[in-house]
Give the backbone structure.
Amino acid sequence: MEYADLLNAGVYFINKGLLNAFKIGSIYALGAVGITLVFGILRFAHFAHGDMMTFGALIAFAGTVILRNLGINTEPIPTGLLALPLAVAATIILALIIDRHVYAHFRASKSPPVVFVMTSIGVTFILQGIIRLVGGTGDRQFFFTAVSNGESIREDKGRWLVKFDWLRDHFDGFTQKLVITMPQLWLFIFTAVALVGLHYFLNHTRTGKAMRAVSDNEDLARISGIDVGRVVKVTWVIAGTLAAIAGTLLAMDTQYKPILAFNLLLPMFAAAIMGGIGKPFGAVAGAFIVALAETFAVFDWRPIAGYLFADRFDMTASMALVPAEYKLAVPFAILVLVLIWRPTGIFKGQVL
Amino acid sequence: MKYLLEARSLVAGYGELTILNGCDITVEPGSISVIVGANGAGKSTAMKAVFGLLEVRQGSVKFEDQDVTGCTPQRLVELGMGYVPQVANVFPSLSVEENLEMGAYLAASLTEEGLDRVYSIFPILKDKRKQAAGQLSGGQRQMVAVGRAMMMKPRLLMLDEPTAGVSPKVMGDIFEIILKVNESSVGVLMVEQNARQALAIADTGFVLQTGQNLYTDTGEALLANPEVARSFLGGKH
């Protein structure tokens, strides 16, 4: 076994395994935090959360097309990021409109939680309809051509890759390269900033503490004079912001499609439940655990085995624990196991 | 001002059900009033009606001679009333200090002063200020609950069965808490199941039956009243 083989195996593991898991974990975390906050304050499972993410991505895509047609180029920052504030604002407004005209009605009539859950499924269908009506049913690339003055501008995803390939020049036989795309890099940055910011907000500001108080004991919060209506609005602002960021960066890293985030609903709920529903940082931990489990379940170990034990294995079959088509079964299995053994989440402490 | 709180001929209830049928509750400034009575007599309902948690159908509530009938709980907190619910009266995942801060949510400028005051009444809470309220013992949790209600410097503190479901030792602690609060000339109105101990510290006692005043007298006189003793104090002691 060569020194370079070890390096190759390690870089492959980081590149295709860890980085992937952290990418999808960041997306799940941003979504699951929103889901768990909404649950903590409003006491229902918000199934329309995935479509709020898709909605944000669609607005960001529209903004990107407009910016590019205006001939705006902000290399090395992807144009999509410039459209992100627009997407965030639009998603916040969407969330507030839905709350005011749909959920508020059921709050006023003190409907049981199951009514809210059913309503949020209805909202999901409406949003999916709107998304398809506005954005069409096809897939769309953030990094592709746009036409300006009859000339096509090409913003290629490949240009935004960060390649750590200097190792190749220094080690013989080193062939793997570490690649991070620009959207991934921004996703990590946004996730870190958002979560640190959220932590500060919840623990060190009056409004944040009031939010936790409402989540703990709404009646007592009212008696204390906390404006619960305002806390509800703040919750939607935070959930909408995180959803739009996650949706946009996911679409930039892969592509925009109408079912972009609806598919993420199950892993995000698994993450929120695993972390103890109502606990934002439990949801973050849950998100990364689900993402790691999912990624490494379908991770193909063949190249690593090839580098390390080339002569001892038959290298023709995939060496993934679970076939890639069954990826979604992994969070589902985690969800079932958590619900059986630790229905209040994997962390200690009170839950709702 | 003769009365700090003066509720007259209260009629209130839940939906179709009428629980209070014209009961009177009063608290003199700086004194302790206790409401006792059998289960279902309307003790907690009277508290809720006074504190605006329940619609008052007839009758009036005056606080410091000002008519506050139908005011929201928030408004009453601003005016100088504090209320400690019977159950779920702390924020369990918030720290002790955060619980207290929530008590002064309506007037953030009072937070510092309020914390000092509550910590001087209950020094143990200062040591535990970073701990989650849900992890405290029953007695300490009641201190947090009372402390939260004390943050806005109320002139009247209302407690709904503060000793419900606690051990006899903690019960003693809670009565001490109440006397301590009262020392700083805060008026206290409380509902109590443990009528004997409660009437012993009461300046005024109200014995309710089917939502009406059966007896109204000083705590001492009620304890000495053989009728009250037989019906509500659980035999001779």
In short: Chain A touches chain B through 18 residues (CB under 8 Å).
